[in-house]
Amino acid sequence: MFKVNGTEHSLDGIDPATPLLWVLRDTLGLVGAKYGCGIAQCGACTVQLNGVPIRACSTPISAIDGQSITTIEGLAAPDGKLHALQQAWIDYDVAQCGYCQAGQLMSAAALLKDKPAPTDADIDQAMAGHICRCGTYTRIRQAIYAAAKGGVA
Amino acid sequence: MTFSADAYFAEVMGEFEASPRASAIHFSRRSILKLSGAAGAGLILAFTLGPVTEAAAAAMSAKDFAPNAFLRVSPDGSILIYAHRPEIGQGIKTAVPLIVAEEMDAAWADVKVEQAPINTALYGRQSAGGSTSIPTSWDQLRQAGAAARSMLITAAAKKWGVPVSECTTADSAVAHAASKRQLRYGELALAAAALPVPDVKTLTLKTRAQYRLLGNRFTGVDNLKVVTGQPLFGIDQAMPGMLYAVYEKCPAVGGKVISANLDHIKTLPGVKDAFILEGNGVTSDVMPGVAIVADSTWNAFKAKAALQVNWDESKASKDSWTKLQAEAKKIAKQAGAENITKSGDVDAALKGAAKTLEAFYSYPFVPHATLEPQNTTAWFKGDSIELWAPTQTPERAITQVAKLLNLPENRVTLNQTRAGGGFGRRLVNDPCCEAAVIAQRVNAPVKLTWTREDDMRHDFYRPGGFHQFTAGLDAAGKLVGWKVHFITFSSDGKTPVAGGNIPAAEFPLPLVAHGELTQSMLPLMTPCGAWRAPRSNAIAFATQSFIHELAVAAGRDHLEFLLEILGEPRHIPPATSAALNTGRAAAVIKLAAEKAGWGKPLPQGHGLGLAFYFSHAGHFAEVAEVSVDAQKRVTIHNVVMAGDIGPIINMSGAENQCQGGIIDGLSTMMNLQVGIENGRVIEGNFTEYPILRINKAPPKIEVHFIQSDNTPTGVGEPALPPVAPAIANAIFAASGIRVRSLPLRNEGLTV
Ligand code: FES
Ligand code: FES
Prior knowledge:
Low-confidence stretches of chain B: 20-29, 50-68
Mean pLDDT of chain A: 96
Structural class of chain B: alpha+beta
Distance between the termini of chain A: 29 Å
Shape of chain B: globular
Bound molecules: FE2/S2 (inorganic) cluster
Largest sheet of chain B: 7 strands, mixed
Strand content of chain A: 5-15%
Number of helices of chain A: 5
Oligomer: heterodimer
């Protein structure tokens, strides 16, 4: 049993070695977390495990038994109000292709929870696990600062 | 035997290059048509976005015409505009509707955008590449908007019984100031729909000063979906009963399957089927390999890892990058086998020069590495097939699949999805073709997903290349002769590989009195292709670095030396807005230099580097400020860019493209390459292919535009080429280290 965005799911019938990413994408139909490398190098698959960013491509489903996962689909409030970072990502038009951004947002959200007023070095550290092939780093930084200033719900 | 995709690329890129960038398209009245939709549907205008073809005219006048290419003003006030080109991260889905909305004076908040179906009869070319999407559609889009505006304003004037000339439009409404009356477009939609479509010749388009939307900042129309993780991309497609496929090809291109452990593979968990495909032996279609179909991506990936294939490599590539580099070095100082261009008497000029300089530049092969790996979902239904593909060339995919499956083209439906990066990779539809052929064997929808390793090792690479330069300076330090031997590759011994050619008008050849460009081609089987700003992305590094070397040798300021080469403001033939204009070039160079503080005192160990490049009809100059420490660690403090691409459509999108292009160029020059040995690409994943991350990205990238009334040209590519030479020149200025070979990490420099 494990929870995704508050909903319980059973692990029955799933090979315990299956990476969380493919359970989310192929079994649960939550495709926000992306496949980019499969070896914890690009961050496209990032979700939160009890609030901590993890690489879903390299986390076997067995490791999350009894635990709680938040994906990009669950980042906004239940009433649909966007997370301050999601709003900042829109306001600053961060995305180019957008493929990396769900992962980027999940790490950024964990960062702001930890450090509501991050420094450049904090951002570097929290976000360096992500590759943006389109090179949107300047705006990612801007948007994180903007969301931090605006206060995170 | 050749299985090269070079001919395919020649066609695709030729098409882009032939695309009219200036207003060369002639319109007929039929380029805009009114559609009588269901009663009460409002004003629906259809328009073709390509040159008006017979087919388009026929499609539009057919009675049962489904209103595809249109903008629709609904009675409820919403305005729907279809975006007709693939969105690959270049922002086209936002830019195209903005142009229509501007001319019709729509409020942007009222506009909804949808991806158009693939139908070239209606939309003209629907490919995205060569930074041509905007320039080729600029006039039609504006006219469509203006026609809608004209009908709406006429409808209002009629209603009020006042002359049209007394009415104005703004924010989706017509106003009559004298009587203080106003009607929303939605309220006018039905009345406007009853009016005839104006002849496009009678429409007056706005001048730049009248723009309300264009040039401002707009967030991408799909951004809400992006930040909430909605299924937008090819890889996100899912449907009931869908199966998951992988495809294993020979690591050396051209290898064929002798046998594979299929019996074992079929016993693995979740595997539904495994089979050998012979393919048609063309890299842009389907190469031989083994397909595995399973009940999940993970089971397919696992089975692929257990797959053992016995390859017949007798006709496969044996390419070796090490050997090719050695060969190029050996022949560099000879004249090239082939003469590309010659002006004046370069040998005499060099002999008479006060100073001559020689240098050898090289750069490696690089893959595209789009973050979304190649994929396509296909559903074969016996006499038809439906595909969901993140392609840059949807119409070609339809043609290719129809041919491969022996189906009429109208039995192939392609659903264009958003693409997680393009950079030229998705101009080729090999994943689409593979998925189609696999689907033919599977009685269900099937999603083919390439692993990252497949993606990196089965690409159409930016070819490596070599430039041997010799140039002469007179006693005053003026450039008097320029000679290049360009060494590239060929798959057929006759023409250079895709993305590996050099134009006769390559900078600065048209600007020097005595110049020569010769070329040699080394045999190559590794597939090559178009990579963001094809050929320019690499040539710029060699050329613009060597120009700096000359300025240094002449003891002159680089800025002044470069401007002297450009000379008087003039068009280099052909004299269209798509050709190099030395005046526009000088203007961006001066602006970048000024904004970067060229000549200012710098902190100890810092250096400024400048470079200019003209590509894809865009004039771009960049100045980088870097420092280099004793461990040869490079820090990029700032990059300042100035570009001229005519008027800016969406300032936010344009800046994003430029900043992204600059980071892409920096990432590639510092760290990126693939090696090739025994026909195999060595690197497979991001551990070996270290794309730049946020902690190494420049904290500041300043983007400046010179806006003009020239036809707007694309911005996805031209910001990239000047980055590498600007940074290389800055490294020299900061440290005295001259880099002539990419990536810099091979030279011990790290970022
Ligand atoms: S897919 Fe998980 S880190 Fe790249
Ligand atoms: S926006 Fe394309 S990979 Fe980040």
